[in-house]
Amino acid sequence: MADEIRVSTGLRAIKGDNRVEDIKADRTYTWGGTHKSANTQTVGTTHEALELAADLGTKGWATLMNLDTINYVTLGIVVSATYYPVIRLKPGERCVLRLEATATLYAKADTAAVALDVLVLED
């Protein structure tokens, strides 16, 4: 089959004279794999790898949501034992992205542990 995954994104902002008109994308993609990894991970204030199901082969589309109501969480990579944050999810925020198949994504909470909802589809 094809087009089993549907990804919808959009952005619109208005503040005073600054305007960003609707930027929308609604696309479908083929789900190449058959497995998924879905869990809620408690992320502490020291970076840790995302916990993915053992039967998840090649990482593909992912959605991550910060379930905390107070603290933010960062997502990033580790190079030579140094954590580099590249994404910040404030309380209640979600992101959708395609993961690099061989990369390990790490998370780190800001001030106190947060619950991070993680869903990754096999590519």
Radius of gyration: 16 Å
Total tally of structural domains: 1
Name the strands of the widest sheet in spatial order.
Answer: 3-10-5-8
Mean pLDDT: 94
Structural class: mainly beta
Unreliable stretches covering 5 or more consecutive residues: none
Helix-strand topology string? EEEEEEEEEE
User: Number of DSSP strands?
Assistant: 10
Number of helices: 0
CATH class: Mainly Beta
Stated plainly, the CATH topology is called: Jelly Rolls
Q: Give the full name of the CATH homologous superfamily.
A: Jelly Rolls
CATH-scheme architecture: Sandwich
Q: Cα distance, first to last residue? A: 14 Å
Overall 3D form: globular
Please indicate the percent range of residues in DSSP E strands (runs of 2 or more). Answer: over 45%
Q: Percentage of helical residues?
A: under 10%
The biggest sheet, with number of strands, parallel, antiparallel or mixed sense and barrel status, is: 4 strands, antiparallel
Report on the architecture of this protein.
There is one protein chain. The chain is mainly β. The chain has a single domain (33-122), classed as Jelly Rolls. 0% of the residues lie in helices and 60% in strands. The chain starts with a strand and ends with a strand.
In short:
The protein has no helices and 10 strands. It is mostly beta strands and 123 residues long. A 4-stranded antiparallel sheet has the order 3-10-5-8, with no helix packed on it. Strands 4-9-6-7 form a 4-stranded antiparallel sheet, with no helix packed on it.
